[in-house]
Amino acid sequence: MALIELRDVTKSYKRDAIEIPVLEQVSITVPEGDFLGLMGPSGSGKSTLLNLLAGIDRPSRGTIRIGGTEITSLSERALAAWRARHIGFIFQLYNLIPVLTAFENVELPLLLTSLTKKQRRDHVMTALGIVGIADREKHYPRQLSGGQEQRVAIARAIVTDPTLLLADEPTGDLDAKSAAEVLTLLQRLNQEYKKTIVMVTHDPHAAERATHVLHLEKGTLVEQAAAAR
User: Fold this and answer.
1) pLDDT, tens digit (0-9, with 9 covering 90-100), for 63-72
2) Which of 34, 68, 127, 178 has the fewest Cβ atoms within 10 Å of its own Cβ atom?
3) Within the chain, what is the greatest distance between any pair of CA atoms?
């Protein structure tokens, strides 16, 4: 079953009187449970596409349907509620809050839900356990390595059990060993926990972990390849 359906999605930004195209009539179908890698040079529109999938940005033209919901037609309020329920976002620079512990950072998305304190704790410890750092729950970001910080960020992304995980250059700031560990973790989330993942990356080694790879070039899809598992 298709989880993501993009139809003729075009995105451009206005700078003064000039319209700058970023994506041009992009159509993609991503099945549920897929791990899609999005590759392409800087400025090719990869991160813009990820922001459109997350409902952070809206297309200029075209439709985006995720899990049967056409998100392009939702109001801002409905879109925010949809995003909180369905999207887990993993950033290159972790985006952890320095004054909060690992536990508190992961708990943040749950504060918007009706879960009890005990239920929140159970969810957070489960997420930290899945990413292998439950023993670091009381550590602050400055007390963690880059790889551990990214694991906390992944735990925060999965703690609400989202429909879709979006990862924007998740290994871009990590050394080779930590990067490989984070990619193995993403693969595990895909294979064991059946999470649908869309990952933007510059790194061919990272893209190799995906089930499928799409290449963006100047805002258009140029080829489609299947990656080896």
Assistant:
1) 999 999 999 9
2) 68
3) 54
